[in-house]
Amino acid sequence: MSGYLLEMKGIAKRFDGVPALDGIDLAIRPGECIGLCGENGAGKSTLMKVLSAVYPHGTWDGEILLDGQPLRAQSIRDTEDAGIIIIHQELMLVPELTVAENIFLGNEPTLPGGRLNYPAMNRRAEEILRELKLPDVNVVLPVKNYGGGHQQLIEIGKALNKKARLLILDEPSASLTAAEIEVLLEIIRDLKAKGVACVYISHKLEEVAAICDTIVVIRDGKHIATTPMQQMNVDRIIAQMCGREMNQLYPTLPHEIGEVVMEARHITCWDPDQPLRKKVDDVSFQLRRGEILGIAGLVGAGRTELVTAIYGAYEGAYEGEVWLEGQRVNTSTPLKSIDAGFALVPEDRKHHGIVRDLSVGENITLSVLERYSRLSRIDGNLEAREIGEQIKRLALKTASPGLPITALSGGNQQKAVLAKMLLTGPKVLILDEPTRGVDVGAKFEIYKLMLELAAQGISIIMVSSELAEVLGVSDRVLVMGEGKLRGDFVNQGLTQEMVLAAAIGQGNNHG
Known about the structure:
22 strands, P-loop_NTPase, globular, 511 residues, six-stranded mixed β-sheet, Rossmann fold, nucleotide-binding, single chain, 32% helix, 25% strand, repeat
């Protein structure tokens, strides 16, 4: 026996003749956590879909061995029966069902006669949630009652209930707070101690370094290196991922900051579920031409609500005024905002950024289709030229503009959304978490693009949960806390400590 729980040998997978995986090897022992690292589009998710039989045996080349025996799974049910459980980046919960029903989905215990054994389900669900440090979650309430972080941990509860021998976590912490990430890492440590093997995919390399025993790096579908974590650090992982040293995570490009171009006055947003509660409370600020304005704050501070209200996309009641170039403008709907000169790249690209049924190219030109219309037809050649230019401009990795947008990695989907909004020719570009779920190389490209746009005189508002990112690219930083504007700092000598102190309502709020 090799001592390995699972081995993948020479895995190759093609889409429309284009290789996505080219001879990848991966081996994992019981109780080991492997960090699977690579840039967006490197093939990480494709490899895990092969392993979990999203792509069934026979649709790829190579061999998978479980306990030394060939695994020829035809469906996710087959791999789950073998103890291989994948937690996808997109949550697989049914919002209307209870927490317990979601945890047992497809594995429900029954009573004689076939009725569901709800008491047993609820008891076991409560045990699992205690393990997940979620004792305050009521297992008989619909899962939609809980936020993204709780839902991510409930998804992990589903995996625990299935008696996982190998747990695959694909970007598990993208929607978690710092405290929830600590809980997640503690859960993984407990699972490792019980002999459960894990494959951990995350662009947050500090987490990878904290939890993983071995680092496997793939690049452009090829296996680059397998190295014990003791011999690695974050910089070395980045160098292997990118094939180059990333000495500078944040590019620099001089850009002139001009006169005040936009003003938000007295923006107030009410919670759609609790109409007396304010999510944003009387916030006013100015934005200058060619300026990158970062908005920081703790989770729940009201940052996303503020920018979606300015753009006319906030789902609850809101009020306030938006002024552009000295004129009050109508931004009551996204379409009116685009006409006025605003563009928004939303936080949740899966639900609000892309149209899943359309191709890469169709997504890119969606916001300016009238530009290519000739009478009642679309000028396909003109549209194709524009799509080609945008793909080149944003270094968007796609085998063809005709591929479904969902076939692209998260970072490349984000670039397609950016391309779509830039085609509208905005004066003010709002980016809400522009690099969430995006790898180091693609982040650098997005920052570079932001600086180039600022140099062209476009004003940018960027909301980000990553303080290092806010400080790395912003000219000025607004800090929000509990719906209020708590600080407005010029980004010179500004530290993370100063921003956090302002976010929790302490310290000098202007700099």
